[in-house]
Write a structure and sequence with these properties.
The protein is mainly β and about 140 residues long. The protein has one domain: Nucleic acid-binding proteins (OB fold (Dihydrolipoamide Acetyltransferase, E2P)). The protein is built from one helix and six strands. A five-stranded mixed β-barrel has the order 1-3-4-6-5. The chain starts with 6 loop residues before the first strand and ends in a 30-residue tail after the last strand. About 15% of the residues are buried.
Length: about 140
């Protein structure tokens, strides 16, 4: 039997991305949360999803993941048990380990000259016409 652990969310970033490191300093990641609307229009609620991005994706998120940006994230849910500090109860930390993040609408313009710029007038891919196909 095959298993699948894949989740997709669309929402707004609630706080700017922060760079975190493991205790031994061997791994680093970008961490941010997105607010996702759940419930009905009569009783709207917001579910907060903690997102973790590793490697190059994490580096890019440190530049582009700003509070208020609309994003689409996909990845795997990770559940990490731990002992609570206040009452020594068993607790669970739930996070989305992102393997894809798409910023749909940026909240602010990035002013860093080293960051690539996005020109909306240039299409993502040139159109392909039926006559141009080689088969």
């Amino acid at each position: 039997m095959a298993f699948l652990n894949q989740c997709n969310f669309f929402g707004n970033i609630g706080r700017d991305a922060e760079m975190k490191q493991s205790k031994d300093g061997s791994k680093s990641w970008a961490e941010f949360s997105i607010g996702v609307s759940v419930g009905s229009s009569q009783s709207p609620k917001t579910m907060w999803v903690k997102c973790l991005c590793f490697g190059k994706l994490g580096e890019r998120m440190m530049i582009y993941a700003t509070k208020g940006s609309s994003v689409y994230v996909s990845g795997k849910i990770d559940i990490s048990p731990y002992i609570g500090k206040k009452n020594n109860e068993a607790m669970v930390n739930i996070a989305l380990l992102c393997d894809n993040v798409q910023i749909m609408k940026a909240a602010a313009v990035v002013t860093d000259n080293s960051a690539p710029t996005f020109d909306e007038s240039i299409p993502f891919a040139a159109p392909v016409f039926y006559e141009d196909l080689p088969f």
